[in-house]
UniProtKB/TrEMBL annotation:
GO terms for cellular component: plasma membrane. It is found in: Cell membrane. Pfam families: Mem_trans (PF03547). Coiled coil: none annotated. GO terms for biological process: transmembrane transport. The chain crosses the membrane at residues 6-26, 66-88, 100-121, 127-148, 168-192, 198-217, 229-247, 253-272, 284-306. Keywords: Cell membrane, Membrane, Transmembrane, Transmembrane helix, Transport. This is Transport protein. It comes from the Bacteria. It comes from Limosilactobacillus gastricus PS3. It is a multi-pass membrane protein. PANTHER family: AUXIN EFFLUX CARRIER FAMILY PROTEIN, TRANSPORTER AUXIN EFFLUX CARRIER EC FAMILY.
Length: 307
């Protein structure tokens, strides 16, 4: 995989996002439509894509590499959480402090990263990408959501949030199918393949739809938010590269994990802010700017893996 190929794929994704923005701007999609499509992709299409990526012959080497990637992802999250807490602890506004900390650590690796990995590396990319998704769900629904709540959720509640996530269920079922070499019938495999083909384009169109409606003339962010953008889009992905290199991860596993780690701020930061009954505007603007910047920073981070 060359940088030019990645740049071309990024441009294709940008065009799909532009198409989504155009569709929304012309009034063909309403807010409720976008919300329903988002739920369809997250709760139905994404788990199918993940499960389908495990439909391959069992290989101890693949399982070993996946384990190394998972260790790297977990260690990366621990480092990012500690660094973000230290950097933003002096931010006075509690809402901005929470958004800055969450936004710098947690990225949109499922909704943007998986489609990109699928487009670039096929099912192999998604296979190694599930480690990043597992890490995201593990930390986001424990440490992440805890920042936005007055009362810390119980351990039982945290486990419930993690394991009722359809993507986690798909990872567990897919891993079992991989280990025991359980293959789906041809008709089911074709069905899952068709869903996988549509997942990437539809995800980008929905992301584009969500970028419409903002007042782009009023994109004023406090200094802490700009630091968040630097950390999320560039610094933390570089840290992930170093950790992966130390563990000896190479090839598709390295490229996929780095691309997913370089994805923009996770959209769930808006949901958590809303649940905390705080102002969501900084979160929305942060997510939107981070998404646009990622069209430049993802290729940069990918290029660094070649050094």
């Amino acid at each position: 995989m060359s940088i030019s190929q990645l740049a071309n794929q990024i441009m294709v994704l940008f065009l799909l996002m532009f198409l989504g923005a155009l569709i929304r701007a012309l009034g063909f999609f309403k807010v409720t439509t976008i919300s329903e499509m988002t739920n369809m992709l997250l709760y139905f299409a994404s788990p199918i894509v993940i499960f389908n990526s495990f439909q391959k012959d069992f290989s101890l080497n693949r399982l070993h590499i996946l384990g190394l990637v998972l260790v790297a992802v977990i260690f990366s999250y621990i480092v990012m959480i500690v660094v973000a807490k230290l950097i933003f602890q002096r931010v006075q506004d509690p809402n901005l402090r929470r958004i800055a900390r969450y936004g710098s650590v947690y990225c949109n690796n499922g909704f943007m990263g998986i489609p990109l990995a699928l487009a670039l590396f096929g099912n192999n990319g998604v296979f190694y990408g599930v480690a990043s998704m597992a890490g995201f769900n593990l930390f986001s629904w424990t440490q992440g959501v805890g920042m936005f709540r007055q009362q810390q959720p119980s351990f039982h509640e945290q486990l419930k949030q993690i394991f009722k996530n359809p993507n986690i269920i798909a990872i567990i079922l897919g891993l079992l199918a991989f280990v025991f070499s359980l293959k789906m019938p041809t008709m089911i495999s074709t069905f899952m393949g068709d869903i996988s083909s549509a997942y990437g384009p539809m995800s980008m169109i929905v992301i584009g739809c969500n970028l419409v409606g903002l007042n782009w003339r009023d994109l004023k962010l406090p200094r802490s938010m700009w630091i968040t953008l630097l950390l999320r889009n560039l610094i933390f992905p570089i840290i992930t590269i170093l950790i992966l290199r130390l563990l000896g991860v190479t090839g598709v596993a390295l490229y996929t994990t780095v691309i997913l780690s370089a994805c923009p701020v996770a959209g769930v930061v808006v949901l958590f802010t809303l649940q905390a009954k705080d102002d969501t505007k900084p979160a929305v603007v942060l997510m939107s700017i981070s998404t646009l910047l990622s069209l430049i920073t993802i290729p940069i981070c990918f290029a660094l893996t070649m050094l």
